[in-house]
Amino acid sequence: MKKLLFSIALLFAITVAHAQCNTPNEVIAASVSGNSATITWNAVPEASSYTVRLITEANQPNFSDEDIIGTATTNSITFTNELEIGTTYYATVKAHCNNGQSSDWSPLNFSQFTTVSQNDLFTDAISLPVYSGVGAISDFERETNIKNASPSSTTLIGAESCFPNNNDIWFKFTATSDELMAIIQNEPNTNLVVNATVYKSDSGNLTFLSCYNSRENKIANLIPGDLYYLRIVRIWNNVLNADLNVKCYLAEIPSNDICVNAIALPIASTPSLDDENTLNGYIVGAQEQSTFAGGCGMLQNVFYKFTATNANHRLKLSENCFGLDVKLISGGCDAPVLISCAVNSTDIIFPGLTIGNEYLLSFGRVNPIDCINFEFKLNLTIAQVPANDLCENAEMIAITGPMEAAVPVFPQTGFATFTDFTTTCYPNLRDVWYKVNSEYLNLFVNCVAINTSILLSNYKIQFFSGTCTNLTEITCVQVGQNLPVTLPNTGIYYIRISTTSPLNTADILQLEIKYAATCQTAEQLCTSSSIEPYIFQNVTDTPGSGQMACLFTTPNPVYYFLKIGTAGDLNVQILQNSAFDQNGNPVGYNMDVDFVAWGPFDSPESCGAIVAGGCTPT
Questions:
Q1: Which residues are within 8 A (CB) of 356 and not within 5 positions of it... i.e. 6 or more apart?
Q2: Which of the four pLDDT bands, split at 50, 70 and 90, describes residue 17?
Q3: How do residues 21-38 score in pLDDT, each as one tens digit?
Q4: Which residue has the higher pLDDT, 615 or 203?
Q5: 153: Cβ contacts below 8 Å, ≥ 6 apart
Q6: Mean pLDDT (whole number) for 582-607
Q7: Of 42, 169, 450, 529, which residue is the least packed, with the fewest Cβ within 10 Å?
Q8: Half-sphere exposure in the Cβ direction for 10 (13 Å, CA)
Q9: What number of other Cβ atoms are within 10 A of residue 417's Cβ?
Q10: DSSP assignment of 280-312, as one string?
Q11: What DSSP state is assigned to residue 582?
């Protein structure tokens, strides 16, 4: 029997299960502070490393380039000084296993945490330096966040403390004086009330001193050299989602908040706040002395003094958020006499000072709470006021004829001062003065703008007769073109140009005065010939005289008289053209010209005999 040998091949598939890299779970944040936190999670077997990502919005997996990322080889990682104070984060972890696989990101369900304020704990109190008027207040400000602060225990703050069981943050300072101002402001919610408590530190124990609920707080009864703590309390439950940043600084009470301690203000060489003689001042904590010397009202005052080296001085102040009123005072601290008061100004002229006399400057704060930084710069120089700033120094103006080229002047009112006199028109404005010696009764005044930004409505012009000590107003109008002025007599007249434009405005005006073309101002017309024609510039911008004889309009009139020595015919050719050559030939374009002739008369003084009524044109 033969045996059969079978060879059986068994085919089968073998599935190999690769080891998975599991997703980490139970992600927890611990030891959370203002800018640090430790993240832990359950370890994943076979994991060689982990990537941890902190995100600020629960929108996984839409990660941001601004996410905070760290790596670890164990199931724990600490982010040190990498987090933002008072910020909510979500932590998610991905495992990287030895087999080359990586897990999914862990879910965000229970990984949320929020960093606390940097100075949330008494032991983490931020040191506050004290501003004493040297340097910039901004260098002394300290800013932190109170959004996620926690309440301090009553054991620490004491039963008598104000505002218990409220979230709080801590500052500390060493007193430099027996009184200090604490300026506290919440940003951006500047209308929120800030509450604070001050403690004295006794060998690590806190002794309650006082409570405050204002942005500006005068802390009294301090002992210079001793350590104190400032607790700022959050009770704004209606703004839970606000950033609630808090700015704080301490300042000494200004030494010059009383007149006898006025600080000497040097005279600077240039009107620049960068000049070496520019001073830094501050006003926070100063006493309120609104009645000192009278004048404009002020919340708080500080004092400076200077000796006048010129009849006119200029004071420049830095722009500020709280506003300053400035009083100029003579007579000293015992018998103060108010000279002037500038309200919320940053560029001021003090005119009419007596050289060698000492003057006081009282700076008063206008706005009580709009800002936190109550410092300013002040610069005092000699004011370069116009030479004709006073009536006594009025500049003479030449009056020209209708067909003559006017001699313009350019009023400069940028640093002009006020003239204190009674007038029915535009009193108490900055002004400059001119004068004319007029032989004519009818004048035309042109006052036009040179630079296009000028507002002519800001400028007024007045004519006065008399003397600077006894002026009589003749006319007062807004500046413009072809302003007619009728004078009662010939002689000296004073002209005042005043402005409501801001101090130091770079306005440029041009002022011209001509006498009006009338029969009384007629000029003699010289004879001419075709070889030597009589050529003259016509008058322009002169108001007409209305209907004159058969001419219904008389724009830009001019008058001449002609003496006739021999009886006979008179042939007159009048040609008006835009241009002539040197031989009298018209080379431009012809223009219409009308004329009226009267006569004969015995003398040029016969204007009263002219009949302006109708006539028959010829």
A1: 307, 308
A2: very low
A3: 999 999 999 888 778 899
A4: 203
A5: none
A6: 79
A7: 529
A8: 2
A9: 22
A10: EEE-TTPPP-TTTTSSS--SSEEEEEEE-SSS-
A11: T
Tens digits of residue pLDDT in 198-241: 999 987 788 999 988 887 888 999 999 999 999 988 766 544 44
Q: pLDDT digit string (tens) for 555-579?
A: 677 778 788 878 888 777 777 887 8
**What is 204-264 written as a DSSP string?**
TEEEEEEEE-SSEEEE-S--TT-EEEEEEEE--GGGTTS--EEEEEEEEPPTTSSGGGPEE
Long-range contacts of 537-541 (CB under 8 A, 24+ apart): 537/403, 537/405, 538/403, 538/576, 539/402, 539/403, 541/446, 541/481, 541/482
pLDDT bucket at 531, cuts 50 / 70 / 90: low
Helices marked H in 268-388 — which ranges? none
Check whether the bond before 61 is cis (ω within 30° of 0): yes
Residues in the chain: 618
Highest mean pLDDT among 74-88, 184-198, 301-315: 301-315
- C-alpha span between 252 and 61 (Å, rounded): 53
∠ CA 592-598-601 to the nearest 5 degrees?
Answer: 150
Q: How far apart are CA 204 and CA 595, in angstroms?
A: 106
**Containing H/E element for 430?**
strand 430-438
Token readout for 271 is 């009107």
- C-alpha–C-alpha distance, residues 349 and 234, integer Å: 47
Rounded Cα–Cα distance for residues 600 and 563 (Å):
10
3-state secondary structure of 458: helix
How many Å apart are CA 287 and CA 179, to the nearest integer? 13
**In sequence order, which residues have a C-beta less than 8 Å from that of residue 67 and are 6 or more positions away?**
53, 54, 55, 56
What stretch of H or E contains 572?
A: none
Q: Give the CA angle between residues 96, 97, 102 to the nearest 5°.
A: 45
Name the residue type at position 150: S
- CB atoms under 10 Å from CB of 400, counted, come to 15
Please answer whether residues 186 and 145 qualify as being in contact, where contact means their C-beta atoms are separated by less than 8 angstroms. no
Strand segments (E) across 507-571: 509-515, 523-524, 560-561
**Residue from 243, 117, 116, 118 nearest 188 by CA:** 243
Average pLDDT over residues 141-153: 81
| 434-482 per-position pLDDT tens digit | 999 998 888 888 888 776 667 777 888 999 999 999 999 998 888 877 7
Distance CA 477, CA 461 (A): 6
- Other C-beta atoms closer than 10 Å to the C-beta of 426 total 17
CB 184 within 8 A of CB 233: no
Amino acid at 286: A
